[in-house]
Amino acid sequence: GRKLEWAVNTPEALAAHKEINGSIIRTRFPPEPNGYLHIGHAKSMNMNFSLAFEKLGVAPENRRTIFRYDDTNPEAESEEYIDSLRRDLQWLGWEPERTTYSSDNFQKLYEYAVVLIKKGLAYVCDMNKSEIEIQRELAMKRANARNKGLDPDVEAPIPSPDILPGRNRDTSIERNLKMFEDMKLGLYDEGTYTLRLKMDFESSNPNMYDLIAYRIKYVRHPHAGNGWCIYPSYDWTHGTCDSLEHIDYSICTLEFETRREPYYWILWALDLYKPEVYEMSRLNIEYTVLSKRRLIKLVDNKCVRGWNDPRMPTISGLRRRGYTKEILNQFCDDVGATRSMNLVEMEKLFQTARLKLSATSRRAMAALTPIKVTVTNFDEVVAKMKAEGEDITYDVQNSPTDESMGSHTVTITDVLYIDSSDFRMVDDPNYYGLAPNKAVGLKYFGGNLFCDEVVAKDADGNATELKCHFDKSADRVKPKSWITWVPKTGIPCEVRVYGHLFDVPEPTDRWEEELNSKSEIVHSNAIIDPSVMEYVDAKHVDKWHSNPALQFERIGYFVVDVDTTYDSAKNEGKLVFNRTVSLKEEVAK
Ligand code: ATP
Ligand code: MG
Ligand code: MG
C-alpha cells in the first residue's frame, strides 16, 4: 500500500509518550453503547485485556486497558446500553485501568477542530448527503483511472468545481471559524452544514475524501446531556481519544483497515502522538449474527425474548443460558487472533462448554417429557429388599469424578417418571430403551423395570402412562441400558431447550426467512429429582451472574432461568431451566 508518512511519530512525540507511560503498555476496549455486548466483543476484550499483552510479552504488572464508551452517536445510544456494557465487562472479569467516555472529551475535540480550521485543514461545508456521495463517486472514478495509468480528465471529467473539490473547500479561515461556532451555538438546522477535513481527493482511499468531523444533531446525549448540538464523527473522535489516553496499541477489526489512513492523518494534522493500529479479523460464528445492528432487529421485532434471550449470542444471553466467563474466555483463547476471515463452528463453543461444565456441574435426574410409571409390585419388592437389608434410598455423588462436590440421596417410589425418549411403543433390536413387554435397567436401583401395559396416550399416540413391575430376581434378563427416573416427590418444572437461532450457517440480509422456528422448545411439564430443592431456589438465582450448573443425567447441562420464582421452603412457585448445551454433539436432523 501507499506509505503513510504521517503515520510515523516524531522522535520528540515518542520521547514524550515514553515519559508519560514509562514501562506501561496500554490498550483500550472501546464499544459504542448502541446495543448489548456479544461474543465478538468478548473476543475483543480477551484480546485487549490479555492476549495482546501475551503476544507482546508485556509483564502482567505493566498491562493497562482502558474501557472506553465510544459514544459519539447519541441517536443510537442509551443509558440502558451504557449500564449493560459495564455489567457484562465486569461479569467477564476484566478490570479496566479506568472507564472513560469519548463524550467527556467533547470540549477538547471541539477545540482541536478549531485548531485545524486555523491551520486551514478543516472547513464548514454545505453539501448535502447526496452531493457528498456524488463527489465521492467522482473522486473514486478518477482514482481508478489514475491507478490504471489513464487520464482522469478523460475517464471521469469534473463537471463543476462545485462538486470536486467542492464549493466550500477554499473558503476563508475566518468564515469557517465563525460558521463552526454558529453550528455549535445552534444557529443552523440539522443537515445544513458539516465540518469537513481537508484531506486528499486524489487518494485511492475513499476514507481520505474530506471526511466529516462534525454534524449537527438536536439530540440529547445519554452521557453528556443537553450541552451539545454538534457531535464529532467516529473518525474525528477515535484516534484523538486514543492519543489523549496514551494508548500504545489501538486494536480494531479488519473492516477498519481503510480507516487507518484518516486515523493517522488526523493525528498528524493535530500534531498528536500516534498509537500503533492493529487490525484483527472479526469473530463470526455459524448459525448466528454478531452485529449489534442485526441483533437490535431481532429484539425490536420480538423474534426473541429480549437482549438476554438465551438464544442470543450476547454476553447477557449466554450468561442466562449458563455459559460462564471461564467458558467464554477459554473459547476466545482457543479461537485466537488472526487476520484471516474466521467463521467458527457453534459446536466449538458447545464443546468448550461441555468440557468446563462436566467438571463443575452437579448431577440430578430429570425427565423433560415425563411418562408416569406405576409400579404394581412395589410394596412386595421393597418388603423383600428391606428384609435382605437393602435400602431404597441411594447415596449419589454430586459429581462422579469429584468427591469434594458432596453427595445427595435419591429415593425410589411406587410411582416414577421416566423420560419419553426412553420409551417406544414399538421395540426394535437396535433400541435399548423401554417398550411394552420389555425390561430396562433402572439407574441406582440395581434391578429391572418391566413394562406390562400402556395405560394412557396423548392425542399423537405417544404413551403418557405405563404400568410396570420391578424385577430384582436373580435370573432376570441383563438389561442393555440403565435409564434415569424421577420419584413421585419430584419437582415440576419448565425446561427450555434451545437450538440455533438461524437455519442457515451464514445468515444473509433475508435473515427473517432464515430464522429457525424451532429455536426454543419448551417442555412445560418436566420434572426433576427433589434432591435439588434447596439448590434451585429463586433466592440463589442471581439475575446478572451465572447460576449454578446442573447436569441432568443422560440429558445435558442446565441452569435455573431468571424467570424462576420457586420457593423451596414452601415448595411452590415456578421453576424454569435453560438447557446450556446437550451432553453430546447433536446430529443435525
Ligand atoms: P457491531 O457491529 O456489533 O456493533 P462494532 O465493531 O460496531 O460491532 P463496537 O461496539 O464499536 O462494535 O465494538 C467495540 C470493539 O469490539 C471494537 O474494537 C470492535 O472492533 C470489537 N468487535 C466488535 N465486534 C467484533 C467481532 N465480531 N469480533 C471481534 N471483535 C469485535
Ligand atoms: Mg463501532
Ligand atoms: Mg456497529
UniProtKB/TrEMBL annotation:
A GO CC term assigned to this protein in UniProt: cytosol
Span of domain Glutamyl/glutaminyl-tRNA synthetase class Ib catalytic: 25-349
A GO MF term: ATP binding
Record's keyword annotation contains Nucleotide-binding: yes
Enzyme class, first EC level, given as a word: ligase
tRNA synthetases class I (E and Q) anti-codon binding domain: residues covered: 483-561
Key words of the record: Aminoacyl-tRNA synthetase, ATP-binding, Ligase, Nucleotide-binding, Protein biosynthesis
Domain Glutamyl/glutaminyl-tRNA synthetase class Ib anti-codon binding stretches: 362-471
GO biological-process terms attached to the record: glutaminyl-tRNA aminoacylation
Known catalytic reactions: tRNA(Gln) + L-glutamine + ATP = L-glutaminyl-tRNA(Gln) + AMP + diphosphate
EC id: 6.1.1.18
Family under the similarity heading: Belongs to the class-I aminoacyl-tRNA synthetase family.
Protein's UniProt name: glutamine--tRNA ligase
Gene source species: Chaetoceros tenuissimus
Portion held of the full protein: 12 to 600 of 693
